[in-house]
Description:
single chain; Elongation Factor Tu (Ef-tu), domain 3; Rossmann fold; seven-stranded antiparallel sheet; seven-stranded mixed sheet
Amino acid sequence: MFRILEKEHFSENVMKFTVEAPQIARSRRPGHFVIVRCGEGGERIPLTIADADTERGTITLVVQQVGVSTRKICALEPGDELTDVVGPLGQATHIAKVGTVVCCGGGVGVAPLLPIVKAMKQAGNRVVTVLAARTRDLIILEDQVRPWSDEVVIMTDDGSYGRKGLVTEGVEDVIRREKVDQVVTIGPAVMMKFVAKLTERYGVPTMCSLNTIMVDGTGMCGACRVTVGGRTRFVCVDGPEFDAHQVDFDEMLMRLRSYN
C-alpha cells in the first residue's frame, strides 16, 4: 500500500497528491510515469511523476477527474492508501544544454512538464515556460515553475489571466523574438499537434510527451501504440516522449476517441 500524505485541490476536478513511495522517488527521472490502482480490481491509471522528494521518500501525482477510477482516486484523503503504484516506467527525458528551451504545457500537462523545466534549467539552459488553459482557474503549478524559468508566459482562452490566446501564439512570439534551440510540449493531443506544426515551420526541434490509452505499461497489450516516423512505437516503453515532428497525431487522435 502507498499512503497519501498530502492532498491539494488545484481546481474542482484536478488534485495534487503527495504519496509515500521511497523506492520510486529514488529512481525516478524527468519523463518517467507510474501506473496507479485504487482498490482491488481497480482500473490501471497511468500518471506522470510531477515531482519527487528523495529525503521524504515521496512522489507527487496530479490527477484529473474524468471517469470512475480517477474519481475514486480524487476522493481519497491524507492517510488513505493507493493499492498499487508501479514504476518508474517509460524512458526518461533526454536533458542537455542546448541553449534556449521553450517548455509549453496545457492544462494538467504542466504536471509532467515541471520536472523537465527544472532539469533543463539545472543543465544550464535559458528556459521560457508557456502555461496555457481555458481559464485562470485551470492554470496549475505556476508558483512551482517560476523559480526554474527565466520567463513565464501565461495564455488563457478567455483572457482571464495573462494574455488572451492559444498556447501556439505564446510559443510563436518567443520564436520570433529570439533564437529557440528546442521546444518541449505537453498537454492535450490536439494542442501538441498544432505546436508541432508551428515549430516545424520554423525548423525548431520539438519533443512531445504522449498521453495515449494505456493498459499494462510493459508494451505487451499494444493499446498505446502510435506511428512515429512511419514506424509503430509503444508509448509505455518507447516513450512517452517522441520527436513531435514525426508523430502521426491524426491517427493518435482517432485512437484516443475509441471509447467516446
